Amino acid sequence: MNIILAAPLNNQAIQLERAGNYVGAEAKYLEALEIKLAGPVEHLVSVAITRNGLGELYIKMGKLDEAQEQLEKAVFEREIECENFDTACTRDSLGRLFETKGDFEKAIHWRTKGAPNYMFCSHFDVNISISISRIVY
Question: Where are the annotated TPR repeats, by residue (predicted)?
């Protein structure tokens, strides 16, 4: 039941974020997160989705410590459930966060943690034929 109530809030947060209303988006994400955290533990992936969205929003807002907290919790929750593309996306977000903070060792750690099967690169202009061993951070 809680997930059903929180899903529209997540969607509203995404729309507000796209419109540039970061404060409004943050409020909707936090409301959705509160509802989801009150629900059963077996819905960790749903909680992780909201944490991931909130963490990425915080990066845009320059709230890097808050972003780190949410993204680290999201990746932990996702890794409990399963190792997949979504987990790789959250690790990539942590990589971007640490690049922004200037901590390139941690950025490399998070970006390569799922190697070789579960990695994601948010640099869309990268030539995908480049081998992993040739990527320099």
Answer: 48-81
Q: What is the pLDDT along the chain (137 residues), one digit of tens a residue?
A: 577 889 999 999 999 999 999 999 999 999 999 999 987 766 788 899 999 999 999 999 999 999 999 999 999 988 887 767 788 889 999 999 999 999 999 998 888 886 555 555 554 443 433 334 334 44
Closest CA to 46 of 34, 58, 57: 34
User: Which pTM was predicted?
Assistant: 0.80
Tell me the CB-side half-sphere exposure of residue 86, using CA atoms within 13 A: 19
Domains of the chain: 2-134 (1.25.40.10)
Neighbouring residues of 55: CB distance < 8 A, sequence distance ≥ 6:
66, 67, 68, 69, 70, 71, 74, 90, 93, 97
Place of tokens 């997540």: 10
